[in-house]
Every structure is written in C-alpha cells, then in structure tokens.
Amino acid sequence: MTVIKEKYKELANKKRLERDSKWNLDWITSDEKLPAKEIKDVINYIDSNKLLNELELEITNSTAIEITQNIKNQKWTSLQVTLAFCHRASIAHQLCNNLTEIFFDEAIQTAKNLDQYQLDNNGGTIGPFHGLPISLKDNFNIKGQSTTLGMVNFCFNPPKFEQDSVLVSLLRDLGAVLYVKTNVPVAMMMPETTNHIWGTTLNPMNKLLSAGGSSGGEASLIKLKGSPLGIGSDIGGSIRIPSSFQNLYSLKPSFGRFPTFGSRSGLPGLESVNSVNGPISNNLRDLKFYCESILNSEPWNYDPKVVELPWRNVELPKKLNIAVLIDDGHIKPTPPIRRGMDIVISKLKSQGHDIIEWEPINHYRLSTLITEFFTSDGGKHVLKETLKVGEPLFPYMENYGNSKNIQVSKLWKLQDERSILVKQVLDNWLSTSTKTQNGKPIDAIIMPVTPFAGNPIDKFYNYVGYTSPFNLCDFATGTFPVTRVDSSIDLPDAPRQYYNEIDCKISNDYNPEESHGGGVSLQLICRRFQEEKVLEILEVLKKLIDYKD
Q: 387 and 338 in one domain?
C-alpha cells in the first residue's frame, strides 16, 4: 500500500524534472537577486531591480495592442518580443510559481517564421495577433504538449496531445506566439491554485494571500507582466476570482460566444453548467482587441456550440442604471471589499448615474445547486483519476470522495429547478424598471467577486456565492480593479451577529496587516450575450476610478 501511495509523488517529480530541463539558464535569475522572503509585494520587483535589459522592459511593459502595432510597423521583430516575454515569464515563475508547460524553443521558431513571413511580404502580417505572445491556462490542448489539469495521473497520460484545441488553432492562424501554460488547482475545481505536481501559485500583490483559482497561474503571470494577454476558463468563478485577487481586467462570456471544443475538462461531459473561456489582462482595451479578433475569425465554423454572433458596437446611455450588492446576506465581505464598493458607488453617483440596490433572489440556492451539478456523477471521474496513482484529495475536494451518484431522474429535476430559478433572476432584473428614475431596467449589477481581497492561503472556505449564480444564469461578467488594501484604513469589524459559521471564520480570519496591499476588485454583470456592453461599461468605470498599482 505504501508503494501505491508514493506513486503519485514519483510521477509528479518526474514531470517537474521534465519541465525544468527546458529552462533557458540565461533567463534564470540567481538566488541572491531574488527578493527576501519577508518581501510580500513583488509586482514591480522585475522592473525596479532591472532584471531585464531596457528593450525587454519596454516590450514587456507594453499593451498587447502596442506590441502588435510595433511589430507591424517593424519597430520590433516578433523574435525580440518573444524572447522578452520568455525571459520575463521565467523570472515571474521564480517569484510566484505560475508556469506548468514551457515550450520556449517552439515559440522562438514560430517567431522566426513570422518575421520571415513579414520580410517576404513587404511588412505584411498574417493576422491581428502577429508576433503577440499569448499565455494559456493549463486546460487548453496544444499539439506537442501535455495537459495535466493539476492531476498527477495526467502527467504522461497522454505524454503530449496530437491536436490543438479549436481556440489554440485559431490563435495560431491569427499570428499568436504560444510559449507557456499556467498552473491550475486539481481538476480546476478548487478556489485556490495548488496541486501535487506543480505546487502552490503565489499572489504577486501579497504573497501571503491566495492567487485564487482556478485560473490562478494565469492571473499571477499576467500581473507580473510575464504575459501581455492570457486566456482562462470559468465554470463557477475561475476567471473572476484570480483576476480580482490580482486587480486585473477579465471577461467571463456567456457559453457559446467563444470556442471551447478540444479543451481538456476536469469534469468531461458535464453540461448542467457549462465552462467558458475568456481573456485576462492588465489592460482593458486588450480584452476588446482579443474578442473582436477571435470573433472576426468566425469561430462558429469550427466549434458547433459557438453561436454565430459577430462582435457588435454598443452605444451606452449617458446615464446608466446600475444595481449594487454589497452584502449577499450569507457571507459579509471583509472591510476592504466594502470600501471598494463604497468608492465605486460614490463615483457613479457623482456623475449622475442611477444607483439602486440589487436583491439577491435565489443566489444562495444557485450557489449550492451548482455544487450538486459538479458532483452529480458522485465525484467518480475525479476520484477515479486520483486513485489510479494514489493521489490524495485536498480538503477543498473532499466532496469528490464522499458524494453519491445522482440518478438521471433527480438530475433532470435539479436542471428543471435551475431553469425556474434563473427565470426568476431574469424577472427580478426586468422588474428593476419600477425602481429606476427613467423607468428602464438596470444596465448592469456591480458586486464583490468574493468576500475578500485575496484570502489567506488555505482559508477560502469554498464559498463562491458571489460568482457561481451567474454561471448558471449564463450572464456575461467582467472584473475591474478599484484599489488595494490599506491596513491603516481597512480595520477589522467589531464582533457582530454572524450569518453562519463560515461568515464567522472569514470575518475572524481578516487581518489588515496580513492583507495589506491585496487587490480590491469587483465584478460587473450584464445579461446573456452582452459581452460588448460589459466592456463598454468597464471603460466608464476605468475612467472614473483611474486605478494604478
């Protein structure tokens, strides 16, 4: 029995050694140049310590739009850009442990081919992403690479994939340079990014706080500017949670807007709630650039579940109707998140936007219902893959070891309940017309993503009631940064009557000194297939808030 238990460690170690053999040692920073353990905030460490040369710093501090324009104008070559991001990503990984698969040699060859194409075609480029490095969460299959999903049995099963995911294929056709994949929790089903293969990814804003999950490696890398633009996935909050913890802009679209076919799933075949993928970036306009470019490639011709819906221009009303929710009545957000809400509400009101309160109808039930869907197979798929190599389950995933398989008749009943609850949320949305000054329904909702500005590591407590209801509603949502935790302002709450045990734990866990510098971000929710509207309203918020790290 001991031998079986050790098998997962042997496989994980073998996989790490395989990856580590691919590092370019010229891009690895010596230990004496890395920050001391007591330094928590490392987002500016690479720049302030001049760990890159001047050209590399200029390139990696540029937006995706600026990078593609400079390549098109032949200020930079694709090779120069690729080398700069490979170098910076390597250091970012040393700082926060965010990478899984690295394939720098393949990326360099791609960049050389793109430069040759440009040379042969009088400066012409093959697409809008020509020469742009794009990082990918470790659930996208890339030809010639592994996709582990943080599961030890997938380390060499298969050793490499023979075909790209649809999205990966489109990115190549549009000129992107693929160079790294980023860390995820086991099966992408935990709110913190840790697993037995690659370990724990850290939050560069405050390394005492979680990077979030499941796109935690992606968000951590992007925050350190080891990638100008990355793609995550979201089935219960997996884009929004890590993006909010690291003060990034992100978009969780409705299912069917962007291709998902060919990706590896932690819960293959689950369609009671659908996973989606979307962009994450330090720069808001890069999200729109990505969305327009992907949809202009007509992805509905490659993925049968993509809706034929090109990107649309949206004109917002001068005065927006916004509903806000500060506290969902089940878990009270910690002081910095509530302060972030107050900042945004105040700024919106100062510009004459109409603000009303959102009533969280069915939110808690939707958040428990989605968990029932996740384990509707009794947790058998995840458990089977872990048992094959004796991999133990993390505490966050204990329900995958003790759940019961749901009969089809009960699953149908749950899905029917979901549809009824979602209809009630929609009716509630439309009924806001009776509360707004202009008699029209709200344009969007603004609320927290989680109760915290990055939870203390291992203390998320699995509550995703602020995000997961909108996965079941299939609403388009985005995240946006507001400020950072300030220990002199964001003081702990006095003892109060708590909603429940988890509410008590989260309140008592909050320590302003421990959380100092953590990201304070919120989410903006619009209705289904209103991705364009999400990004336009985020632009309004960006100008109002004027956030800078």
A: yes
104 and 227, same structural domain?
yes
C-beta separation of 63 from 290 below 8 A:
no
106 and 196, same domain (yes or no): yes
Query: What is the distance between the terminal CA atoms of the chain, rounded to a whole angstrom?
Result: 51
- 143 an active-site residue? no
Let me know: does 386 contact 449? Beta carbons within 8 Å.
no
Check whether residue 159 and residue 80 sit in a common domain.
Answer: yes
| Whether residues 258 and 333 fall in one domain | no
- DSSP code of residue 149: T
Q: How far is CA 209 from the centre of its chain?
A: 16
From first to last of its 549 residues, the chain has per-residue pLDDT tens of: 344 457 999 999 999 999 999 999 999 999 999 999 999 999 999 999 999 999 999 999 999 999 999 999 999 999 999 999 999 999 999 999 999 999 999 999 999 999 999 999 999 999 999 999 999 999 999 999 999 999 999 999 999 999 999 999 999 999 999 999 999 999 999 999 999 999 999 999 999 999 999 999 999 999 999 999 999 999 999 999 999 999 999 999 999 999 999 999 999 999 999 999 999 999 999 999 999 999 999 999 999 999 999 999 999 999 999 999 999 999 999 999 999 999 999 999 999 999 999 999 999 999 999 999 999 999 999 999 999 999 999 999 999 989 999 999 999 999 999 999 999 999 999 999 999 999 999 999 999 999 999 999 999 999 999 999 999 999 999 999 999 999 999 999 999 999 999 999 999 999 999 999 999 999 999 999 999 999 999 999 999 999 999
CATH number at residue 200: 3.90.1300.10
> Which of the residues 137, 181, 225, 332 is marked catalytic?
137
Q: Which domain holds residue 101?
A: 13-264+275-301
User: Is position 214 annotated as part of the catalytic site?
Assistant: yes
Which residues are within 8 A (CB) of 367 and not within 5 positions of it... i.e. 6 or more apart? Answer: 463, 464, 465, 468, 469
Concatenate the DSSP letters of all residues of 396-451 into one string.
GGTHHHH--BPPHHHHHHHHHHHHHHHHHHHHHHHHGGGTSTTS---SEEEEESSS
Answer yes or no: do 294 and 328 share one domain. Answer: no
Q: Tell whether 425 is covered by a domain.
A: yes
Residue 449 lies in a domain: yes
Q: How many domains are contained in the chain?
A: 2
Active site residue 380: no
Same-domain pairing of 19 and 118: yes
pTM of the model: 0.98
Catalytic annotation, pick one of 227, 233, 238, 275? 238
Q: Mind spelling out the 3-state secondary structure of 232-300? A: EEECCCCCHHHHHHCCCEEEECCCCCCCCCCCCCCCCCCCCCCCEEEEEECCHHHHHHHHHHHHHCCHH
> Which of 90, 135, 214, 254 is an active site residue?
214
Asked if residue 27 and residue 167 are part of one domain, the reply reads: yes
